[in-house]
Amino acid sequence: MDMEKKWIEIISDNWSQIAVILGIVGYVIEKLTVFFLKKKEITFSRLQENKILEIRIFYKSYQTLNIALLTYLEQMLQEKDHKTFEKNIEAKYIESINDVYDTFRNDIQNQFLDFKYNAMTVKLFLDNEDLSIIDEISDTFVSIRKKLDTYRSNNELSNTSEGWESLVIIRDDDISKRLPELIKKIESSLRQSFKLK
């Protein structure tokens, strides 16, 4: 009990100094907590900004590749009407049909490489569910490219109604339906991650 009385006496005699020390300790703890929370908040904000930037770049490369493939496909479909196609070639000062297609293929190849790079980069910021959708989009683009190259390299196929129908199917199913469906899934997921409606 003597020890208890001593502590009570020490506390009662020095209560103002103890209160100041506890206040200083509390102040330091509060400032450290605020500092670390702000640091995390700034890091999270930068991460969100980078995510938005990468998504924007991904969408741009997606649209560019999509337009390039659609243009290439439409040019193939126009080939059916040779007179119109020859006039287009003359207007652009291109000597042969193969030069036109080589130009398209080179452009598509560059756009495809850009898209693959941007798809790989945007994956760093997405959830696992979205990663598989990005892979599906990439696989769909690869499939479209292969189908178009197969069609272009197979002269027998390109001169048949079956060949023309395959181009229409690529345009109507893969480019006009499948890719937009996949993009809508990504958009929905992104809205949820940014807490947008």
- Class per helix and strand makeup: mainly alpha
Q: Give the CATH class.
A: Mainly Alpha
Strand coverage percent: under 5%
Helical run tally: 7
Write down how many β-strands occur, each being a DSSP E stretch of 2 or more residues: 0
- Given the C-alpha coordinates, what overall shape results? rod-shaped
User: Largest sheet, described in full?
Assistant: none
Radius of gyration: 32 Å
Series of secondary-structure elements, N-terminal to C-terminal: HHHHHHH
Indicate the percent of residues in helices: over 70%
CATH topology: de novo design (two linked rop proteins)
Overall mean pLDDT: 80
Structural domain tally? 1
- Poorly predicted regions are none
First CA to last CA: what distance? 66 Å
Which CATH architecture is right?
Up-down Bundle
